[in-house]
Design a protein that fits this description.
By secondary structure, the protein is α/β, with parallel strands linked by helices. It contains 6 helices and 11 strands. The chain has a single domain, classed as 3-Layer(aba) Sandwich (Rossmann fold). The N and C termini lie far apart (30 Å).
Amino acid sequence: MSKKVLVVLADGFEEIEAVTAIDIFRRAGIDVTVAGVGTREVTGSHGITVKTDTTLEEYKSKPDAVLLPGGMPGAENLNKSNTLKTLLQEMNESKKIIGAICASPAVALAPQGILNGRKATCYPGFESQFGRETKFLPERVVRDGHVITSRGPGTAIEFALEVVSALVGPAKSAELSKAMLVKT
């Protein structure tokens, strides 16, 4: 049975982070649903509009992982969604994979307490929004238990491959890395 990932987009999302993850997840054979916060057409921070599969509010399945791209004001718009806040709490309580990149770890996860007691990373400068309970690491990708965080657009491939590793195993991640000529 294929693993399910929900990629949540809000207006102002970082396009590279979203599309890279979606592509890599599908290459890994993961069932990907792209959901827009409040809409099925979401415009990224660089003016690219993406048609989603559904809205977050209409999504009723239970994913194995949820992924939050960054970008501004995308991360802020994610943080405004009560539906997303509820989903993140459910995912956290059940120890399902939560992935966030760029500004989203600091702007969408930290306020929910999801990073408390964890190591995490984010886009440079946003670490000031982590609470004292979060240990910031300047690494490109940080995995602490079921929470995976990353720095930004330039780390999107590594980030997506780490989520693949967590969901379907390191062998699949390594296979994709080799096939895509990812520098290791």
